[in-house]
Amino acid sequence: MDLYNESGFGAIRLGEHENEVPQIGTVEYTPAFGFRGFHSNGWVSLAGTSAWVELAGNVSRESGFVGLGIPNPSVRFDMYGTTEAGSSSRFRRNDNTAFGIRFFFDKNRGKAIVQDNDEIVNLSFRGFTGSGHSAAAQMIVEVDGIPGISNDIPGRFKFLTTPSGSSNPVVGMMLDSNQRLSLKNGTGINEFTTDETLTENADLAVPTAKAVKKYIDDAIAELLKKLKIVS
């Protein structure tokens, strides 16, 4: 039995077909060769067990790397492109809810709990140097404290940039588990305050420009009053 495409490409053939030249794209089954496909260089076997498994609408495999646009992927998912579209990804969510797209980066130590200072995710933004790729910037999330047993994972966010003349990113900003923000090696802060009296006297709060101006204006007015320059 033959099923042919009138365009001249593609066919399904069942049974022996002696001395007949097949169309490119033909898929054939014969007792002698099993399933095979025909292309410009001849027949190629379609037999064998695939590493991909389809089950209940899901497709998966347990090992190996996947490459898009690259014949020899070196990581679990490796994409290579030479155009904007070929080098881009898009994620869409279209449902009548208030929720958006979510990404989950999970870290565990086998079946054990993570530990203080464990790195959870490291995003590296790299450029080509002529001999390889080096990081221009990084974003790192780490465990910042002793994890608890009730979904308690204290964390910190590090933002790193690479100085000119160096190949090693350094921490430029960090947000820790106490919501304290620190720039480079400076003191950590967790508040921008509008307190015009500056009575808090703490390193954790940074006053706004308006608060500082009001404090200075009040201080000058009080000094002038004491000097009896003004009533």
Topology:
Layout: E1 2-4, E2 11-14, E3 26-30, E4 34-39, E5 42-45, E6 53-55, E7 58-60, E8 66-68, E9 77-79, E10 119-128, E11 133-143, E12 155-161, E13 170-175, E14 181-183, E15 191-193, E16 205-207, H1 209-226
Parallel strand pairs: 2-3, 8-9, 15-16
Antiparallel strand pairs: 1-2, 3-4, 4-5, 6-7, 10-11, 11-12, 12-13, 13-14
What does this structure look like?
With 231 residues, the protein is mainly beta. It has four domains: 1-48, no CATH class; 53-90, no CATH class; 111-188; 192-231, no CATH class. Helices cover 8% and strands 33% of the residues. The protein contains one helix and 16 strands. It has one helix at 209-226; strands at residues 2-4, 11-14, 26-30, 34-39, 42-45, 53-55, 58-60, 66-68, 77-79, 119-128, 133-143, 155-161, 170-175, 181-183, 191-193, 205-207. The strands form five sheets. Strands 1-2-3-4-5 form a five-stranded mixed β-sheet, with no helix packed on it. The radius of gyration is 32 Å and the shape is elongated. The mean pLDDT is 84.
